[in-house]
Structure formats: C-alpha cells, structure tokens
Amino acid sequence: MSAFCLLTLTGALLWRSEAPHLTLRWTHSVEKTTWEEVWQRDGAGLLLTEARIEGSGAGMEPPPDARKEGRFWVWSPMRLVAEVTLAQSGAAGEWALCPEASVCIHPHESARFTVCAE
User: Fold this and answer.
1) Does the reported pTM lie above 0.85?
2) Average pLDDT in the 7-21 region?
3) In this structure, what are the phi and psi dihedrals at residue 34, rounded to the nearest 5 degrees?
C-alpha cells in the first residue's frame, strides 16, 4: 500500500501518511486569502481532485466551471503530477498538510510532497 511522503529537498523523510487524501492549505501572499487543494494518490503520482480559493485576484481567478460553496470557489482540476515542491517564501502564511480537517502538520522548511517510494 502506498502512502504520502513529505521529503526535504535532499530526500530525507519529514513525514508520512497513509490517509486516503490530504488537503494542502496556504495563504495567498498578495490577497491574504486561503487556498486549499485536495490530493489523492494515483499510482506513483499525486492527483489534484479539488481546489478551493476564498476570493479572486492577483493571479488566482477561479476557472469558469468553479462553483461558490460557502466562502470558497470550488472546482475539480483532476491534474496528475509526480510531486509538488512546497517553498517557504516568507510572504505567504505557512503551508499545512492536513490528513483530517482538524489535524495538520506545519513544516517550517521547503519540501517535496509526493507518493512514497516502496
């Protein structure tokens, strides 16, 4: 069974989760609004199944198929990637990886989010 892994840029393991999906959350550096992405494992890659943003502007316009749900614009990108590099710019709020709504990790360094090699 595969798992999600968070690795340093040099490959050291920071965190591992076997949750069926994870939410990646951060604050947009210009608009200061929340951006969330829901990822699941798909073979050796990561599948972006849902994206949510609180508002629009500064390069974060929701696509035409987005729908308003509460305070978020929500859509389903269905984009498959090998990994996601998570940088710490200092301008945006720290990012979080959340296997459950109330349980998140907040690494304080740049890292790679990927499916663990077995």
Assistant:
1) yes
2) 91
3) -80, 140
